[in-house]
Write a structure and sequence with these properties.
This protein is an all-alpha fold. The protein has 4 helices and no strands. It is globular. The N and C termini lie far apart (about 40 Å).
Length: about 80
């Protein structure tokens, strides 16, 4: 997003928190530091939100959301 000033910090933090909540609602709980694919989805959704194009995010990243959801479900089965 190439932001070089602090004026956008609060807005970006809010967008990131919304994106984390959205991704968690789709794939389940995750540790953002451990799951780089989930982290990437959060960043991409935030980029779409920042650019007022959020309506396109889910369609454009549906395969990644489904793949990650299945991966996370598999991780839960292994832990149990």
């Amino acid at each position: 997003m190439h932001i070089f000033h602090k004026g956008e910090d609060d807005n970006l933090k809010e967008l990131l928190s919304f994106s984390i909540a959205f991704v968690k609602s789709k794939i389940g709980e995750f540790d953002i530091e451990e799951h780089t694919s989930a982290k990437e989805l959060v960043f991409e959704r935030t980029r779409y939100a920042y650019n007022d194009a959020l309506e396109y995010f889910e369609d454009n990243f549906l395969s990644e959301i489904i793949s990650l959801s299945l991966e996370m479900a598999g991780d839960e089965d292994v832990e149990e």
